[in-house]
Design goal:
The structure is a homodimer. Chain A has about 190 residues and is of the alpha+beta class. Chain A has a domain at about 1-110: Jelly Rolls (Sandwich), CATH 2.60.120. The first copy, chain A, has helices at about 5-10, 20-25, 80-85, 110-115, 120-145, 150-160, 160-165, 170-175, 180-190; strands spanning about 30, 35-40, 45-55, 55-60, 65-75, 80, 95, 100-105. A four-stranded antiparallel beta sheet of chain A has the order 1-8-3-6. A four-stranded antiparallel beta sheet of chain A has the order 2-7-4-5. The longest helix of chain A has 26 residues, at about 120-145. Chain A is globular and about 55 Å long. The interface of A and B includes residues 68, 71, 134 and 136 of A.
Chain lengths: ~190, ~190
């Protein structure tokens, strides 16, 4: 399971064979059942998660008790509540497995140690954060710019693999639709 | 003007006195008049900008010809169109000076060279991107969660300095209001 993480590092930076065991010693494997929580609202966000297999979602529960998903993470994606993680504070989010999922977790202090011992991983995370921030800036543009129907179009074009794997009601929540509206939209596209 | 950049680096990482001239040689100072463009839609986004003095805004022009501001940057903030910058592509955004502004610009290739020559700056940018991404993730939550009125409340609490400096019509555009609605909201708050 850890081989995949090393492969992902190696896509961005050079990893010496001899350093692999040392690097991996900073990570903790966690297996989750479908709908199992990795993080709960009100608990300290201690870790940063790399998805080895499966799918996570980040959501909050609004005052009406409705779950609002704002992010998904498939294989090779990183996810956490970044503000709560960097400040080691209580989170306002949940992170839950959409399907049976395996992750590798690293704590903030372990991540800082990792950078000191293996400087190429500082570069790796600089690149990961840089790319995530770039995508996020564009997403904010889309949230301002696109109608809900256009958001759906953009999403299925950019991430076709999600449509196959993510239950309709979660996709609807992510896009800010009711499940009924999403179902109508899909019918319209097929016809 | 470059002293301020060094001070900002030194808040996050150790900078050796002897390295300062070498570090600064990667940056280009640019002075902008109020409303002068630093980046235009349709041009390649070559640089990353550090605001030394003044204020920048990032906006796009929608199909109705209306400018939609999605981000501001005051002193000590970094700004660019991150997706276009990292891919060295044509931008869909404008970056414009809200007031008389001084920035330091660095190109993508210079930034990569800077990291190779001065590794502590790799860490600095990892931290800058990490914090920016954390703030951006929270902002996406707010865009899903808050009514426009709540967004305004949240914004003036988090960034009181903006309210003083940024023209009302730009603030309205950023918050997705008409200027008239913002003016009504402000009257309501005062009464």
């Amino acid at each position: 399971m850890s081989e995949q993480l090393i492969k992902h590092f190696a896509r961005f930076v050079e990893i010496k064979e001899a350093n692999i065991p040392g690097i991996l010693s900073f990570f903790q494997p966690i297996s989750l059942l479908k709908k199992e929580n990795l993080l709960r609202e009100g608990s300290i966000c201690t870790s940063h998660y790399f998805v080895v297999k499966g799918c996570l979602r980040l959501f909050f529960v609004n005052e009406k008790g409705v779950e609002q998903t704002i992010q998904f993470a498939l294989e090779n994606w990183w996810l956490t509540d970044y503000m709560a993680f960097q400040n080691q504070q209580v989170s306002n989010f949940y992170i839950q497995a959409v399907e049976k999922t395996e992750v590798l977790a690293i704590s903030l202090s372990a991540q800082e140690q990792l950078f000191l011992q293996f400087p190429p991983l500082e570069k790796y995370f600089r690149l990961i954060y840089q790319r995530a921030y770039a995508a996020s800036q564009l997403r904010i543009k889309y949230l301002y710019h696109f109608s809900r129907e256009e958001l759906y179009e953009q999403f299925i074009t950019a991430y076709p693999e999600f449509i196959q794997r993510i239950p309709q009601y979660l996709l609807a929540s992510f896009l800010g639709f009711t499940p009924e509206y999403l179902s109508e939209l899909r019918k319209k596209k097929r016809s």
